[in-house]
Amino acid sequence: MNHLVEIALGIGLAAATGFRVFIPLLLVGLAARFEVLTLTDGFAWLGSTPALVILGTACLLELAGYYLPWVDNLLDTIATPAAIVAGVLVSAAVLSDFAPELRWTLAVIAGGGAAGLIQGSTVAARQASSLATLGIGNFVLATAEALLSFFVTVLAILLPLFLLLLLGAFLLWRVHRRLRVAA
User: SS3 for 183?
Assistant: First the structure.
């Protein structure tokens, strides 16, 4: 795999962990299990049966928790550091053509950064929704975030460069919007 594709894949998967921690990990494990995705040495365990069972269970619990008013805000306090760690790990898992020092540096900066950026945005959206709707509207956000996590993961696995372009366009739009509001 070429370096740019691996970096795009890592950033895309990490961004998906910012929406939901366990959906991308489960899908990466399944992709590895069915040989759609090759993982870096030391991460093959993601495709093992015990890992898939644990990730599937964690995924269901995470999804259910975000549908409970106020529990979703509590989960955000746990999910923020967890998403960053998951973003680093999933990035490192797919950066197989890099020396370990560079792999982990890229994983921490790009993977952790992408996951943290997305997770921070979802926390802000959930807080705004909680204040505006007293938590009633958060189920819409929970559904959107779960779907985004799923589709971003699938897109990252199948079309990583396209996803990187989409993420770049989204970031430019956000920066432009903030600059316009500030002016």
Answer: coil
Beta-carbon count within 10 A of 67 CB? 13
Chain Cα centroid distance, residue 29: 14
Residue-level length of the chain: 183
Tokens encoding 45: 């365990």
Rounded Cα distance between 147 and 181, Å, is: 29
The model carries a pTM of 0.90
Helix axes 112-133, 138-158, angle to 10 degrees: 160
Q: Give dist(CA 78, CA 59) in Å, integer.
A: 14
**What is the distance of C-alpha 70 from the center of its chain?**
22
Paired tokens of 40: 């870096």
Residue type, 3: H
Rounded Cα gap, residues 75 and 50, in angstroms: 24
Tokens 């644990």 locate to 54
Q: Give the pLDDT confidence of 88-117 residue by residue, as tens digits.
A: 999 999 999 999 999 999 999 999 999 999
